[in-house]
Amino acid sequence: MLNFELLAPELTLAATAIVVILLDFVFKRKWWLAAVSIIGLAVSAGFTVSMWGGGSVALFNNMLAVDSFALFFKLLFLVIAALVILASAGYVAKFRRFQGEYYALVLLSALGMMLMAATSELISIYLALELTSISLYVLVGFLKDSKSTEAALKYLLLGAVASAVLLFGMALVFGFTGQTQLGEIAGAIQGMSLAGVLSSPGLIAGMVLMVAGFGFKVAAVPFHMWVPDVYEGAPTPITAYLSVASKAAGFAVLLRVFYSAFGLPTWLSLDWGMLFAILAAVGMTLGNVVALPQTNIKRMLGYSSIAQAGYLMVGLATVGFASAGDVAGRSGLLFFLASYALTNLGAFIAIIAISSKLDSDLISDYAGMAKRAPLLALALTLCLISLIGMPPAAGFMAKFYIFSGAVQNGLLWLVIIAVINSVISAYYYLRVVKVMWMDKPASRAKVPSPAALRVALAVSCLGVLVLGIVPGFVMKLAEMAAQMFAF
Amino acid sequence: MDFNYLSTIIFLPAVGAVLIAFVPGLSGRLIKWLSAIFTLVPLGLSIYLFAIFDRASGAIQFEEKLSWIPAINAHYHLGVDGISLPLVILMALLGFLVVLISWKIDLRPREYFAWLLLLETSILGVFCSLDLLLFFLFWEIEVIPMYFLISIWGTGRKEYSATKYVIYTLFGSAFMLAGILSLYFATGSLSMVEIAQGGLAMVQSVIPAAGVFWLLFIGFAVKLPVFPLHTWLPDAHTDAPTAVSVVLAGALLKMGGYGMIRICVSIFPDVAREFALILIILAVVNVLYGAAVTMRQTDLKRMIAYSSVSHMGYVLLGIFALSQVSLVGATMQMFSHGIITGLLFAMAGLVMHNSKERDLRKLGGLARQMPVIAVVFSVAGLASLGLPTTSGFAAEFLVFVGSFTSTAVVGIKLWTLLGVLGIVITAGYILWMLQRVFYGPPQDKFNKVKDADILERVYMFVFVAVIMGVGIYPAILTDVIQAGVMPVMRLLGG
Lengths: 487, 494
Hints:
The structure holds two protein chains of two kinds. Chain A contains 20 helices and two strands.
């Protein structure tokens, strides 16, 4: 018995991607393709919203879960993809060919991510992950200049290794438990004794390898080596996409796998909780410290995203330490992801506009941007303040929420490391602010930006402010999503 | 109470800031008038609140409470009591006066006044918030306008000072955030009132209260500032534009003292008593060290900045002497220092602006060219050293009497006496400074220097009137403060 209507968002998106490729032959004006993509995303989002609150359903022999958790992420990915497409409006002129394919690939990778959030079985997780990754490999190389090509190759090679490691981890877990479905893995593990696990460390090794594989996706230290080069070389809208959507998808899978499959018994979850806590502490410290001397804004935001992955790991660690039924860690993670997505997208959209005029990503070239493009500078400043984690921006509420969960579960030491890291990060974020507002502009020329991009920027900045000042509604959604796991 | 007075007072300046920032085509003159209006109305409202404030009741008044973030039990909860109301008036008054002080700003006036008004909103918000999250939110927002104000309109090493200010503040608030999260974890509430009434036992059962106390204290200590966390202050003051120095010394530092009374003492009375001795010693170090360093300064603004460090030591002493009189004195000192040092900075700004010189060694004989400034500067200086009939005397007297007679700590009499020595040093550096700036032989290079103009005389008059008014009739404030201190004393069990 198949309920295809439960797959409506995914099917819509797949159909839109195909239609966009076909229409590419018809339309001479490529912005129609962007419009079609946006419509497809909107329809898909409509389906997703209509399914909210419908309870948890499993599909295809429990391979896919349609629960609030998956829906929350689907909506997030749809919004991100729409904003990225809007922000690409002017940028795609840089590609002489294949504009239709560009939009289609963005849609396909969004489809992959939506599936990642919904899969509850190891093999389909892998498939969804590859659908996402392969689309992204191509997108990273879209500029076809030497940096972009290098970035794509690097991403492909390292990504392939990460996939292999992930598969190996999955194979070990499968070999140990005899199951691929997350709920059944959990059942198998809970049937074992501590001694049984300790006598054959395959399960733990499998888990660690899976952390490594997903860690690559979310750019967690020490699997972050690809980040700066790829972020710098990729087309900027794709950098934005990578930095938020790909990361969110990775965390969605990590959360589902570790919470559903390895959540019990407690000694196991404390183990991986500690693993994530250590990764978090190392990640945010390294990301922030290395971001300090960067001169290229995309590289700087690359390291900053590594640090942000560290903060997100605090949420995962909390989930590991939390007692059953405590949603604080999970909902904190979801809320953080939502606010981080809007913030980072906003920052990158502003950068797309500024950099395409300047034809440079150097922070020093942003001098006096407040004079040349006051609204862009204001928006970028707001997003950077949000990344520091200062009110009234979303980043503050996100940190408050995720850290309060961590403190409640005895991770005060990790929170203290995290807040001190936020202070360190203030230094390099504020440097950009300083350059924009205090330095003398190199020229007086205004910085024009396409209307679609301005819409995307306005939406993300508004989101950042709303999540920062009246976050109640989204927090409620996150809490509901965190409670409703099909498995 | 139907009308939301506090929200109006807090957010009117922010509305003004948004208007100024986003309405295109405003002239510089119009921007200044708008700023004046959007700060004058809150001032009027806060004085009205002061007038109708019920002095007999120790309760929190003009309360507003709305559910804000249900997921973490946070409320939009405002209210003032006798401790916060004087500080609200202080900020509202300074907020209006600094607009007048800034009247001659011509560099990017749109941004300048927008940030200035936003700064006022955030500081007012800190004094009115009764919810820890809301408190922290306003506390953090204040950093952003300060950063821009210092680093764009400042002088000297302005960007260094601004960044130093931000990093220090964020460092302090990082600990404060950890403290707030721990409190929230222990009590499940973010309401300062509820947590304070719930008593320490509730906190103690889950986490060591002393640890949380210190986490929060560090956040406030950076702001007050307490030695050895004070080093941001001289830099920030020296390089900030005059109006920002006035707000910084006048109202911003008080956030630290206010936080200590409202949170450290009210929520952790037992811990406060336990560590009172250490904190009182720190206070005395603050007073004496600050005063000693002030003596050695050669830069006019830096000198006043260090004198703030010294005077904030009295606030710390008054707070942790933990007696009723000393707490009234500490609050009084916060108000009085805000006005006096605000005036000192305003006058220093005028001297620097008119004479183009800030080095004490090169100034001199200015009393001839600027008699009005000389007189007002002297009044402020004398108030600062605690001359009777000025508010400085009333405040410091209460602090000393309160802590001398306090029974909270063994040996507090000795420490208080050491603190009183600070007054002697203060008299030394203030008089020496006045002498070096205004007296001595007139110098030819200053022949063209002008005295204060009409607008400047207006705000000088307001400052002096408040200083003398409170000095001659301190009960106007102490009545209100007393009402606010009573509940704190009940929490202290005294």
